[in-house]
Specification:
Layout: E1 2-4, E2 8-13, E3 16-21, E4 27-30, H1 42-46, H2 50-58, E5 62-64, H3 69-81, E6 86-91, H4 116-130, E7 136-141, H5 150-167, E8 170-176, H6 184-191, E9 195-203, H7 206-212, H8 222-236, E10 243-250, H9 255-262, E11 273-279, H10 297-307, E12 310-311, E13 329-332, E14 337-339, E15 351-355, E16 361-363, H11 365-376, H12 382-385, H13 390-393, H14 398-404, H15 412-415, H16 417-420
Parallel strand pairs: 6-7, 6-13, 7-8, 8-9, 9-10, 10-11, 11-12
Antiparallel strand pairs: 1-5, 2-3, 3-4, 13-14, 14-15, 15-16
Helix pairs in contact: 4-5, 9-10, 11-14
């Protein structure tokens, strides 16, 4: 006995009909005028030929009648949230940066340069006490601009490489960088530490980028970074488990302008570049409004795909955010405080603890429970429970829920379109 999945989503497309299941992430493209009744009504499904039925069952559009999809999703979400076999620590040794982006949420804060030596000394003590307790550790380099302190970061990774062999745990790395300080030597060194992902950013189009993403001395950076992209791809194109992510920040631009700018990247490099497209939201720092929003990004995905780029498929599932949405992730700030999210450094409840000078860790139970409670709140929210986008959204940004006690529903184009472009 079978029934229709609760998570079938049907969308009209200019070329036909998209049928997508947010639980399994499977998608079908149907010609215009095709019948969609089998995705809504089990009696219509029963009238299909067996081959078509098997396809719909295999991809989760039709499921066994005894299954409780909501209970399964809730279980997997909670299991992943409290997974104790994996640790993801994002290192923020400094908030210093050699760029002066007007929308940066870190720009008015102290950079903490003087703490670098202490930071890595205490971090080693923490790692000695804790890394051995996990099967795998992800070390994410973040900032500020982490490569302002490339020497210290790489020395720490060299230490982890030795320690991981002695204490029997795996580790891998990732980095978010503006790309300006990345050299062949540094990239090669990072790759020796199982670098899985490297992300740099272009702002909208060439004209906008050179206005907003400038060096602190006022020099533009667009064409400089285009050369860096070529270097990165040359070094990494044959590494199967590595992703080079090019984030495109949309701010008062058009698909035509972005397309024109992306053409600066040579055609042979484009399949190795994974586009991650997002609208700039912190526009109050320099503009009153941004005409781009995340409900439009499917047009940019289509444009990027037509140019030969890959579309970044976010690999995380059963969590509402690739960063802060589980118990095993935190940012380690320059003052050794532990934060769940740093998108608003004025929100102190996101700071849940601290690493002490001896490497021991203190977690504020009240703040940590508050974060977890808001991470789980989607399963008690009537609107979320009945929403077909639940397995892709999970109630949206946890930070926003902690601050406002309101969920942030995200559009289909932001939560699900990436899976369809897989």
């Amino acid at each position: 006995m079978y029934k229709v999945s609760n998570y079938n989503i049907i969308k009209d497309d200019e070329n036909g009909i998209i049928v997508y299941n947010s639980y399994t992430k499977a998608s079908l493209f149907l010609e215009k005028g095709s019948s969609i009744s089998a995705f809504k009504d089990i009696d219509a499904f029963n009238k299909l030929d067996k081959e078509t039925q098997d396809i719909l069952i295999k991809n989760g559009f039709i499921i066994d009648s005894s299954r409780d999809e909501f209970a399964e999703i809730k279980y997997m979400y909670e299991k992943k949230y409290y997974d104790k076999t994996f640790l993801n620590i994002a290192l923020v040794p400094s908030l210093a940066c050699n760029f002066a982006c007007p929308y940066c949420f870190e720009k008015d804060l102290k950079c903490g340069k003087e703490n670098i030596k202490k930071y890595f000394s205490v971090l080693k003590k923490f790692a000695e006490k804790n890394f051995k307790n996990y099967q795998c550790v992800q070390i994410s380099l973040f900032g500020g601009e982490p490569l302002l302190f490339a020497k210290e970061c790489l020395e720490f990774l060299d230490w982890v490489k030795v320690d991981s062999k002695e204490r029997d745990y795996r580790y891998f790395t990732s980095i978010v960088t503006n790309g300006s300080l990345l050299t062949e030597k540094i990239l090669k060194h990072l790759l020796e530490h199982d670098l899985k992902m490297l992300q740099i950013t272009l702002d909208s189009d060439k004209e906008t980028h050179d206005l907003t993403r400038r060096f602190k001395n006022g020099d533009p950076s667009f064409e400089f970074l285009i050369d860096k992209i070529s270097m990165i791809v040359d070094f990494t194109k044959d590494i199967s488990d590595f992703k080079f992510v090019l984030r495109i920040n949309l701010s008062n631009t058009t698909t035509d302008k972005v397309e024109e700018s992306l053409k600066y990247i040579k055609e042979q490099y484009r399949p190795y570049v994974n586009l991650l497209i997002r609208s700039v939201y912190n526009t109050h720092a320099y503009k009153d409004k941004n005409k781009n929003n995340n409900s439009q990004i499917d047009k940019y995905f289509e444009m990027g795909k037509n140019l030969g780029f890959s579309i970044f498929q976010e690999s995380f599932q059963y969590q509402s955010c690739e960063a802060c949405a589980d118990d095993k992730f935190f940012y380690l700030m320059p003052d050794l405080t532990i934060w769940k999210c740093i998108n608003d450094l004025n929100y102190n409840d996101a700071c849940i603890g601290k690493i002490n000078g001896d490497g021991s860790i203190y977690i504020d139970p009240q703040k940590n429970v508050k974060w977890a409670k808001n991470a789980m709140s989607t399963f008690n929210d009537k609107e979320c429970i009945n929403c077909k986008l639940l397995p892709d959204c999970y109630g949206g940004c946890i930070l926003k829920k902690c601050k406002t006690c309101k969920k942030q529903c995200r559009p289909f184009e932001m939560t699900s379109m990436l899976h369809i472009f897989r």
